[in-house]
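User: quick one - fold this with S-adenosylmethionine bound?
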Amino acid sequence: MLSYRHAFHAGNFADVLKHLILTQILGHLNRKDKAYCCIDTHAGPGDYALDGSYALKNREFDNGIGKLWLRDDLPDSVADYLNIIKQFNATPQLSRYPGSPLLAKQLLRRQDRLLLCELHSTEVQALNKIVKQDKRITVFHADGLKHALGLLPPKERRGLVLIDPSYEIKSDYTRAVETLINMNQRFATGTYALWYPVVERHRNLALERALSTSGMKDVQLFELGLQADSDGHGMTACGVIVVNPPWTLAAEMRRVLPWLADVLGDEGAGFYRIQTLADETAP
Ligand SMILES: C[S@@+](CC[C@H](N)C(=O)[O-])C[C@H]1O[C@@H](n2cnc3c(N)ncnc32)[C@H](O)[C@@H]1O
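Assistant: Sure. Structure tokens for the protein plus S-adenosylmethionine:
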């Protein structure tokens, strides 16, 4: 029984980090004409009303996109990401936040494909509505980890797999890592972005260890924290682990993450981590 609804969290600091990295990776893929395939294993409903009751319950967007919305000193890549969010808000008021499927749809070109998996039946209905008749996009009402593995390698032999579980069950940590390793064996040249929360740090350390000893090459971690770890008392930080990142990503994150930690962190407590879990020549 799935109870997680991303609408409660839409536009929070975790979405900012994840979607900034997503737009950077797709922007990089867009630099070459050759088609690519983007797979989103945990797509969610795709579109969020920030003036709706779910988002307003805890107003998590206030500590994420809300803190960036009116600033005029954004680093370039954050400005690029924000410009996409602005395309979904007809007025200067921030009232709508696009999820990963809509962000990807916005960046997709005529020749590219977007494959979306979502298990929750209500969310998948919403997702089907945003996709409409777009022939480039396919929605699967399925377990994203299992189903996406079967979609690899894509015929384009170029692309991104975004893995964004809700971590409702603790086994999500190990399942996500095992699936990522299997995916990489099927499609070694693909780029993979795995989002993770920091709630109990020991789980993250185990996840990082599993990835750094997996034999996969070129694995980088980008983490953003709002406050110091507080084992078990909610999400204090989150990160994205990228396998085969675009060569420009680490340098961009080195520019942007200190700025985001400063702007989004709780009263000076923000922090970031950038770490290579496996380099390009890992055995
Ligand atoms: C964090 S949300 C996704 C947010 C979305 N990727 C975004 O960035 O806008 C995770 C989603 O995964 C869905 N989900 C949970 N378990 C799943 C599974 N095994 N396969 C596919 N979707 C799943 C949940 O219903 C939820 O909508």
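One thing worth noting: The chain has one domain: 6-278.
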